[in-house]
Model the fold of this input.
Amino acid sequence: MDTPSRDRLVALRREFHRRPEPAWREFWTTARIVEELEAIGVDEIAVGPDILADGERIAVPDDDELDEWFERAREAGAREDVLERTKGGYTGAMATIEGGGGPDAPTVALRVDIDGLPRAESTADDHVPAREGFRSVTGAMHACGHDAHVTFGLGVAETVVESDFEGTLKVVFQPAEETIGGGKPVAESGVLDDVDSLLAVHIGLDHPTGEVVAGVEGFLAVAQFRADFAGEPAHAGGQPNEGRNAVQAMATAVSNLYGIPRHEDGATRVNAGRVGGGTASNIIPEEAFIEGEVRGETTELMEYMRDRAHDALEGAALSHDCEVETTPTGGAPGAESDDAVVDVVEAVAERMAGVDSVLRRADLGGSEDATFLMRRVQEQGGHAAYVGVGTDHPGGHHTATFDVDEDSLTVGVDVLATALRELARPDL
Done:
């Protein structure tokens, strides 16, 4: 199979790196993906609402925020017909490529995520995107390699269109991974229910360029939440006894969250990542909030932590005569890569140029909403695996200096396209 040239992959990656958009605001990104898919020769392209189940999107920004990014995309030249289909934050796309092999040939799928992070990018001279002129211009940043993931998806699609692929390939360009909000609506839409084998992919993960992980494991199931505390204001000097201090309740809740007992069955995590409240130093605070998350080595352990977190929040509010309202803001279950798919990826990677080492399994140590898609395919009788494509990166994931070694782009496309061809063989 002939894959796109390194120069083409680098140019695509740099273009997407320069215009990152956060979750549910990937308007320009979606439009640009559609343009590339059409240019490649993909006839069947679903956009936005066609791949997202009604009512399942999580942590969607307010209308003003969506409208601002929508207009930014329009000003950046995003195609109007695609923009209109994504209005309201219905971003993302899916390409379907019908190969040969007849009606009984397998359907395989690749999932890549497309959103950036709401953080600034480094301006240092030794940061390659800054030095070479493709640093972000949006105020967000592709600090986790999703620009490379989009490139993988487009590169695999182009490779398959120009090959003698025997089955059907679906490439899902999923929005809102960073908020753990996009995987569930894609899974629940049913667009992958006919898939026999699914690959999801991530670049880096502290593996060097030339290393491939055939089956990433160790996903931590996660539940994210926002807790809003409500009390009663009063003059802090004149009538402090008349107030009900929401910040006290919030502070107590933070302490209680970190006091949740760990579980004998496996690893658990809790984090109060963002807190705030109050209006002035001389006013008893009437409102406060926590944005936090819990994780578990299994879905059951995450649920244990989630239930205890709810108790900790309610107890803290009660102890300070306040109320608390807790809202889920994201989450994902655990998942496991199937040996049947890992076997194929491992065998392909071992004979691929540019691959120096192959790990059959390695732990992620974090969370990913690709697990929704993996579990959906598995529940329908198919198989799935999460593939790691190593890259040398100067800064850690989610940092201002994160970057990818562009040699890993060709490695990723080669391994993924070839593994998907093998998985789509009718005689496999």
Notes: The chain is about 35% helix and 20% strand. The chain has two domains: 6-219+334-423, 221-331. The longest strand covers residues 221-230. Residues 299-319 form the longest helix (21 residues).
